[in-house]
UniProtKB/TrEMBL annotation:
InterPro entries xrefs: Alkaline_phosphatase_core_sf, DNA/RNA_non-sp_Endonuclease_sf, Endo_G_ENPP1-like_dom, ENPP1-3/EXOG-like_nuc-like, His-Me_finger_sf, Phosphodiest/P_Trfase, SMB_chordata, Somatomedin_B-like_dom_sf
Subcellular location: Secreted
Pfam families in the cross-refs: Phosphodiest (PF01663), Somatomedin_B (PF01033)
Cofactor: Zn(2+)
Protein name: SMB domain-containing protein
Keywords: Calcium, Disulfide bond, Glycoprotein, Hydrolase, Metal-binding, Repeat, Secreted, Signal, Zinc
GO cellular component: extracellular space
GO molecular function terms listed in the Swiss-Prot or TrEMBL record: alkylglycerophosphoethanolamine phosphodiesterase activity; calcium ion binding; nucleic acid binding; phosphatidylcholine lysophospholipase activity; phosphodiesterase I activity; polysaccharide binding; scavenger receptor activity; zinc ion binding
Keyword Glycoprotein set for record: yes
Similarity section: Belongs to the nucleotide pyrophosphatase/phosphodiesterase family.
PROSITE patterns (alphabetical): SMB_1, SMB_2
Species, as recorded: Cyprinus carpio
PANTHER family in the record: ECTONUCLEOTIDE PYROPHOSPHATASE/PHOSPHODIESTERASE, ECTONUCLEOTIDE PYROPHOSPHATASE_PHOSPHODIESTERASE FAMILY MEMBER 2-LIKE
């Protein structure tokens, strides 16, 4: 328990005055380094008093050894500050605002800010000096004004950027409105806002702060949780340990280092109370407040008592804006206000105990809480052992509140696999629930509500509505009174770089997808170049070699084609995978005549947004039939993609029987005629598919897509296989795919489905004159359906929940397939990028 946490007033006062006042030569020596080149000064709470004094020692360059107290920048990190550190070094005695009594006071150099008559000249007034002592209007009292271009005082090379992060600021807090959050409400009303912003998983502080700073997923930058173990370093990263100060944990390039490398000075106030670099006139600040998270945990996010904390936060933001106005910077500085995650109701009574599941708890380690991670105590345990843990935790209780996964089986949208610091077994918790270890037979002492100690937590699935947080952008480079769609926090790093005129370091964001927040975006994205075009369809050739078929079923169909020709087709199936995918010549012989591929009108119907571009070297042929088009790969002997447009009038035809180990990528039920039904059963529409997964794939097409087409008048569907055997979220190379074959058959790890419709109801895609609505799924292709505990029931009882769990972004599909979609969509390309980075969460409104 902290005796006296560092106040928000201290944080903001330091921010405002360090920006303009010449620094003391002793301020901010280099303390810990995130990437070797930059210092970060960290402030935490004082836990006890120490004898000695900081008088004349503030921010000294030497480190006092125990038992002596310290006055350097790290003293609060290591709980070793002298008892008068706040008074002597932070100058807290005078407070941080003017009062009527202080107006015109005699200057007192022991105060952090001043209300004396000379404070404006000396640039160290408290932020409310002009409104209170000079009778001028405050920033809040002014009207919204549109700033056409930055209006900065002389000497500024560019508009500075201040990034404010509020810990645990749940998006729904915004609904409290002017009565609680008047300053935030004005920022939101006058600037650019999103309904909410989605954090990364796990929705914890350190992973998301560093994601905001780098634009990288936690699996990419390495800070995968607030606490973690690295098996190579053989070291633990913890919030209260010194190891977190070691640069080796921190990957990627945070915005302040990007700025420094490109000659832009940075002043960073960062975790968990405040930290700072001091240069002369920095151009980027990153600031983090530990509130309202701390009180959100204690009180719960729905407590009315939390309003007092929110008012204090809002008041501090008002101080910042008043200070900027007082320094004539309010039309110059760009401000980004974000949260790192939301907050959910949670209580220790809602806890799952692993001991009650029959696990050998002495053989495992558990990172408990809202996102459980299980590792072995003995690192010689095999992958089989991890699979056994998952099996022992799968669907064991009637009301089980978590799903166990091998990390590579987690939903792709979480991007939480490809890092050695993520344990092999993961528990995806239900909202409001925790997991904990327990003694054998689970003899646990569950605390009563009065002694639990918390009523709120975070870390849950990042698509849950309570985990969403805020984004507000305000300043001359942001659009005026503009709302943009929901986006993920990986996208902000590129925006920060655009605001500062920087070239971004490599990151997981999609540069240009948030151009809509900026008045004059400096970066114009362009479509990637197509690497491989489809090869022309060769003339049909007579089959002269033995195909090795087990049986041949010949059916004669008379087709009335546009050229009044009549053709007899031979439709051949084989039971063996190898023979099924023998040669492209055989596929072409099945088609018999190119005249059956009436290409142009079908392109328009089934590819309304153009053919997907293939961004890697391969060989494929585009085939267009009556009811669908596909890009058939000669290398993996299956479609890279298949597309069809489904109208509200869907025909209900009995499905053709298929070989048990194979399935049709597109269901023949959608075919309107015998000819098109026959075309849908061609081998070019066939993929290897586990029988258990067919239940999911079939229900998606026969039920979900039918309903979507009725609800949206018509839909376009793009679907195909995914290969990600190394679990890195990127398309596997052909060599990698061949390492995981069954005979000569390539087994997909996932299948994708992208569903597009017109945003305007009652408009078909042909008529659509506005935006598009996109829903996307990346479905794991597995031999059983154990992920759904009621999979023994009818598909209508469980498949749709599985689909929602595995929702995804189109951009995720592009990375996993090497394809580029919506090439010819009638939308600005930046809007196309925004569609690709959007994810349908199927959650209630935040």
């Amino acid at each position: 328990m902290c005796f006296r946490p560092v106040s928000h007033q201290e944080m903001w006062t330091k921010l405002l005055h360090r920006a303009e006042v010449s620094p003391s030569p002793h301020v901010c020596t280099c303390v810990y380094r995130i990437r070797l080149t930059n210092c970060v000064c960290v402030c935490v709470c004082v836990l006890s008093d120490f004898s000695g004094s900081c008088k004349g020692r503030c921010f000294e360059l030497k480190e006092a050894e125990p038992p002596n107290c310290r006055c350097d920048n790290l003293c609060k990190t290591y709980l070793s500050c002298c008892s008068d550190f706040d008074e002597q070094c932070l100058k807290t005695a005078g407070g941080f605002e003017c009062s009527r009594e202080r107006c015109g006071e005699v200057r007192n150099e022991d105060y952090a800010c001043h209300c004396s008559d000379d404070c404006l000249l000396r640039g160290d007034c408290c932020t409310n000096y002009r409104p209170l002592c000079k009778g001028e209007s405050s920033w809040l009292e002014g009207d919204c004004e549109e700033i056409q271009s930055p209006e900065c005082p002389a000497g500024f090379v560019r508009p500075p950027l201040i990034i404010l992060s509020l810990d645990g600021f749940r998006a729904s807090y915004i609904r409290k409105g002017k009565s609680v959050l008047p300053n935030i409400h004005k920022l939101r009303s006058c600037g650019t806002r999103a309904p909410h912003m989605r954090p990364m998983y796990p929705s914890k502080t350190f992973p998301n702060l560093y994601t905001l700073a780098t634009g990288l997923y936690p699996e990419s930058h390495g800070i995968v949780c607030n606490s973690m173990y690295d098996p190579v370093f053989k070291a633990h990263f913890r919030l209260k340990g010194r190891e977190k100060l070691n640069h080796r944990w921190w990957g990627g390039q945070p915005i302040w280092i990007t700025a420094e490398k490109q000659g832009v000075k940075a002043g960073t106030f960062f975790w968990p109370c405040f930290v700072w670099f001091v240069f002369s006139r920095p151009y980027v600040y990153a600031i983090h407040s530990e509130q309202p998270d701390a009180y959100g945990h204690i009180l719960g996010p729905l407590s009315n008592e939390l309003d007092n904390t929110l008012r204090k936060i809002d008041n501090i933001i008002g101080q910042l804006m008043n200070g900027l106005k007082q320094m004539n910077l309010h039309r110059c500085v760009n401000v980004i206000l974000v949260g790192d995650h939301g907050m959910e109701e949670s209580h220790c009574e809602r806890t799952e105990y692993l001991g009650s599941y029959g696990l050998d708890v002495d053989a495992i380690t558990l990172t408990p809480g809202s996102s459980g991670r299980i590792g072995p105590k003995n690192f010689t345990h095999t992958k089989k052992y991890n699979s056994e843990i998952v099996a022992n935790l799968t669907c064991k209780m009637p009301n089980q509140h978590f799903k166990p996964y091998l990390k590579q089986h987690l939903p792709k949208r979480l991007h939480y696999t490809n890092n050695r610091r993520i344990e092999d077994v993961h528990l995806l918790m239900d909202r409001k629930w925790h997991v904990a270890m327990c003694v054998s037979l689970c003899v646990c002492n569950i605390r009563s509500p009065a002694t639990c100690g918390f009523f709120g937590d975070h870390g849950f699935d990042n698509k849950i509505s309570s985990m969403q947080t805020i984004f507000l952008g305000f300043g001359p480079n942001f659009n005026f009174k503009t709302e943009v769609p929901v986006f993920e926090n990986i996208e902000l790093y590129n925006v920060m770089c655009d605001l500062l005129g920087l070239t971004p370091a490599p990151n997981n964001g999609t540069h240009g997808s948030l151009n809509s927040v900026l008045r004059k975006p400096p970066y114009t994205p362009t479509q990637p170049e197509e690497v491989t075009s489809p090869t022309p369809l060769a003339p049909p050739t007579e089959v002269t070699h033995d195909l090795g078929c087990n049986y041949t079923h010949t059916r004669k169909h008379t087709h009335s084609l546009r050229h009044t020709n009549t053709h007899t087709h031979t439709h051949t199936h084989t039971h063996t995978h190898t023979r099924m995918f023998s040669t492209v010549q055989w596929i072409e012989s099945l088609l018999v005549h190119r005249t059956t591929l009436k290409k142009v009108p079908r392109d328009v119907t089934h590819l309304p947004f153009g053919r997907p571009a293939v961004l890697f070297q391969t060989s494929y042929t585009q085939l267009c039939h009556s009811d669908y088009c596909s890009g058939f790969s000669h290398d993996i002997n299956m479609p890279l993609w298949s597309a069809f447009t489904l109208t509200a009038q869907v025909h209900d035809l009995e499905a053709l029987p298929v070989v048990s180990s194979l399935s049709l990528l597109i269901c023949v039920d959608f075919s309107a005629t015998a000819e098109s039904r026959y075309e849908a059963s061609l081998i070019t529409n066939t993929v290897p598919m586990y029988p258990a997964f067919k239940r999911v794939w079939g229900f998606l097409q026969r039920s979900v897509l039918r309903r979507y087409s009725l609800e949206n008048n018509n839909i376009n569907v793009m679907m195909g296989p995914i290969f990600d055997h190394d679990h890195d979220g990127l398309r596997d190379t052909e060599e990698k795919i061949k390492e995981h074959t069954l005979g000569s058959v390539f087994i997909p790890t996932h299948f994708y489905s992208i569903i597009s419709s017109c945003e305007t109801l009652n408009q078909t895609l042909d008529e659509c004159d506005g935006d598009l609505r996109v829903t996307c799924f990346i479905l794991p292709h597995r031999a059983d359906n154990s992920e759904s505990c009621n999979s023994w029931e009818d598909e209508s009882r469980w498949v749709e929940d599985l689909l929602k769990l595995h929702s995804a972004r189109v951009r995720d599909v592009e990375l996993l397939t090497g394809l580029d979609f919506y090439r010819s969509a009638a939308l600005p390309y930046t809007r196309v990028l925004a569609l690709k980075t959007h994810m349908q969460t199927f959650e209630d409104d935040v």
